[in-house]
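Good morning C.,

I know you're traveling, so I'll keep this short. The sequence:
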Amino acid sequence: MNSKQASVEIYDTTLRDGTQGEGVTYTVSDKVLVARKLDQLGIDVIEGGWPGSNPRDAGFFDEIKKVKLSHSRIAAFGATARPGNRPSADPNLKALLKAETPVVTIVAKSWDMQVHEDLRIALEENLELISKSVAYLKKRVDTVILDAEHFFDGFQANPDYALQCLRAASEAGADLLCLCDTRGGMLPGGIEAGVKAAAAAGAPLGIHCHNDSGLAVANSLRAVECGAVQVQGTINGFGERCGNANLCTVIPNLQLKMGRRCVSPAQLAKLSEVARLCAELANVEIDRRQAFVGRSAFAHKGGLHVSAIRKNRETYEHIDPALVGNEQRVLVSDLSGRSNVLYKAQQYGLQVEGRADELSSLLSELKELENIGFQFEGAEASFELLMRKSFHRKKKFFRLRGFRVIDEKIDEDTHSLSEATVMIEGPDGSIEHTAGSGNGPVDALDAAMRKALVKFFPSIEEIQLHDYKVRVLDGTRGTGSIVRVLIESGDGKSRWGTVGVSHNVIEASWQALVDSVVYKLHKDEEAAKRSKATPGKAKAGATPKRRLKSAK
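The tokens, ready to paste straight into the viewer:
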């Protein structure tokens, strides 16, 4: 165990405790990929699961043996031998050894109420199970960790017995005693008292906190201040009920604020990437307001704030976002001032000096558009196009002459059929009149538009629609209400968001679809100018990607 005062060992349980969270599931291949990424992040111990409890965890331990990790050690998780079982005959302990991991973590009851009501055995028998299980494993495994379940609740109810459980494990050879706030209800003061008392057990201490009171990170940091040398947690705080201590918050706070080394600076810069990967594989949307790694963690919207960070980012940013692999973002809305627009103009490479009238006109138009329902925070591509129009830098690639959408449902037992026709004037003045079908009216319209444009701009086949959201902005008018459509698109190299607003959901969708295509064409043209290539030409060998799977 790492016992240096300036270092803290990080123990990740995303693949075990994290998957107990509602909606969080990983396949075996997902778990192996996450383990690889955690290794690159510099995590010391990766808990892979509970061998013997399910085929997926068993599969992970089989597969991870084939992977060469550069830093991390894999841990198998289980429990002490069951009452009445000798350790050598206990199926759970046998499964732990079969996993062949360098670290084994076993959980044991340390709250007398749990011993009486859950295990239904005498307190002395529980101590014997702890001692014999640890001693049996320690003869066969490099590192044995005891997770003292409900330690802080047990310490408050019966401190002598809770400490006896720790001493039983320590005297049997446990390498580390991890103190668990299993119910997640402790306050930092209770954590401090428990950790300080546990120091007398004679083994290094770890901390494992749940977030039921919203204090898992704070409690983990307090435990380290009181002497804990290991912190257990999960990426993004995944876990049962309200989740576990979020390592994406714990690690940077320990390293950047408390001077406790957890990973190298280069590894810390991978934190946002790992957080997003773990969320993506679990098919869970990452909290954009999550500290350090969330998309909004370093996003600025108020004009006064943006004016200040343009002079010195430290005015409103507590760390450099690059330290954790994140980035500074400036949002635009009706709260924006000139500083927001000037920042975005610089980001987009637009020269706005000496163009005060156009700048004022853009700000007025922005506030008016936001007033009627447009939102550019999630549609920065649409805002860039708006800026280009205001400064006469937006090119007219094509012109709509008209479109028609037909939705037909023959009877109750058949799916509705959607078909769209589009008439578009191309850059050479010729007219393309095309039809397309799809899963819904928007998908059909998208298909027809692409069919009309691909003759002029082959690269639009690279565009893939990743997300489609509709929001009713004024529910008082029922089906006649104004709706906002937000679309996220990508081409394999980047992603961008566009927006449309109308009383008609098809019209709003069309606005967002057109902005998505025009933005792509602008980017292609800029790239072509830089590389002296032909604008709009698709990459050789590029595989066309189909679009929106369904749209209402």
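Safe travels,
E.
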